[in-house]
Amino acid sequence: MKKILFPLLLLFLLPVFGQSSIESDSIKIREIYNIALTNGKSYDWLRHLSNSIGGRLSGSYNAQLAVDYTKKELDSLGLDKVWLQEVMVPKWTRGVREYAYIETIPGSATPVNICALGGSIATPEGGTKAEVIEVKGIEELAAIGENKIKGKIVFFNRPMNATNIHTFKAYGGAVDQRANGAAEASKYGAVGVLVRSMNLSIDEYPHAGSMYYGDIAEDQKIPAAAISTKDAEYLSSVLKLQKDLKVYFKMNCETHPDVKSYNVIGEITGSQYPDEYIVVGGHLDSWDLGDGSHDDGAGCVQSMEVLRLFKEMGYKPKRSIRVVLFMNEENGLRGGLKYAEVAKEKSEDHIFALESDSGGFTPRGFTFHADDVQLEKLQNWSPLFAPYYLHIFKEGEGGADIGPLKGDGTVLAGLQPDSQRYFDYHHAATDTFDKINKRELELGAASMTSLIYLVDKYGL
Questions:
Q1: Inter-residue contact 302 to 124 (CB < 8 Å)
Q2: How far apart are CA 24 and CA 438, in angstroms?
Q3: Could you tell me if 450 and 385 are in contact, meaning their C-beta atoms sit under 8 angstroms apart?
Q4: In this predicted model, what pLDDT tens digit does every residue of 246-263 receive, in sequence order?
Q5: Sign of CA pseudo-dihedral 66, 68, 69, 75
Q6: Contact 298, 360 (CB under 8 A)
Q7: What does the pLDDT look like over 129-168, one tens digit per residue?
Q8: Of 329, 330, 355, 442, which residue is the catalytic one?
Q9: Is 395 a catalytic residue?
Q10: How crowded is the C-beta side of 355, counted as CA atoms within 13 Å?
């Protein structure tokens, strides 16, 4: 079978590269995968980030430990430059563990699993207790009206759409209730909100994530919590039987003044075009319930591995290649905004940016934000990845952190791993190192390195 496939690959690529280039690139990509799978460092780096440091909420002590650790590891690679880029980030703390229960009659309480959403205010000192009104989305609030909402807890219970094979589409179709539900419910006099966790599985783990109050006044802000999917199902079923039941919840979260943090940056300076920049990165911060192994410790160590593999191979890139470990993607995007701001101030020419922020699962390909000519060139490389079972080479988005680089011809790309299990762990206490498969993580790093190699060699 191999004897048949390789000639077919040559026939497809011959008009684009020429036979010698095809064979050379195939050999180089094979070398990249071989080293990543037999002598990789991404898994060991992630073990330390996850098990020795843990969750890395922006502005926290652990986030600073992660900055110090990754800078030290980049320093050890012998890169041309390693530095910290200062950025002010929000600081929000969860406080004492949240508590909630459903009360059907006075004195009868069924505990349920909740967590405060990032950015939420705390409940009053004694907690919040009120009747509940269930809705499937923000748009229902206006139809229900203030008379039926005032003084109640709004329970947003729209599930992610399980029929979407692309699970990020399912996430995008439900996440508005988490992000904006409290701000909208407060306009109708609600005293709090519970939001069904962004999760396709039915389990007991609430999933954190950011919420935003927008420009509403301080005295209009109401506490917002995620409730596990299992408890959301239970609450919904009990509400059908008893409309006047009450829910109690207590949260101790707090927003503090902004604090100083850093993006961590390392660079191999280009040998021919040092003023053309290629960026590869992930975000170093995570939520605090788990240890952030998939979101996004995996993307960070895979990005670090790209530069390490080039050094290991003795590959001298034509263009300057940077790894950027962005701070504060989860609740502010300050790191991505700061990096783009400084790049613009320095008039740096970023030709390509690749982000890994979809988990450390088996890679399936890449999506690209590019013009038609650039996209066609990128898609012409896809047969080189066929031996590694990567098939996605299509138009799409890159990643949140590299998004601010959009414009001026910069091509943005996102690694696309298999996403079916991702939202079981996303922002939850289950996002831990034991959920990482070493080989899958290494395959992702090798795939990213191979794409960066082609972009560097041929340009866009």
A1: no
A2: 28
A3: yes
A4: 999 999 999 999 999 999
A5: positive
A6: yes
A7: 999 999 999 999 999 999 999 999 999 999 999 999 999 9
A8: 329
A9: no
A10: 27
